[in-house]
Amino acid sequence: MRCLEKQATNRYSNWTELIRALDKLQGRKCRDPRPTEFDFDEAARIRNKIFDNLEKTSPDGTWFRRERFTAAELEVNARFSEAMSLINLGKYDLALEKWDRILTIDPEYAEAWVNKGATLSNFFDRHEDALVCFEKALSIKNDLANAWHCKGVVLRKLGNHEEAEACFERARILGM
Question: Within 10 Å of residue 163's Cβ, how many Cβ atoms?
Fold first, then answer.
């Protein structure tokens, strides 16, 4: 099969090409490989049911023990991964939309505030807005070394070197 080829030039070049080849192989009409809107409620129900069954079959009842996920938690995790992927692809405006969506669902998600701030500062030069995001993150979770570091970087860009150094020192103390 082409996806197992040793030479990359002989492999499928994208997901769409692979899906169409599989459909053709199975004699089906080619489908649209783009995902449809995802049902996070259904995903949470299925995931929780699977883990409930695993808990019942685990020997000591602890190995597979995990809190149940809500649909909102699953969506936040999915959107977080999407936002990080979009940043890696250079699609910063779309990543910013994902951060906003995450923070609409869970406004107390400190790490999302940090990443939104970093996106605003690094790719849009919106340092004041980024500073607000870092301060919001630190108001939620004061021991986030990354938030202190990012706040220091933005303060330095804004010319506030003394406060920036204090932030860097706090990040260092917290292990960064």
Answer: 13
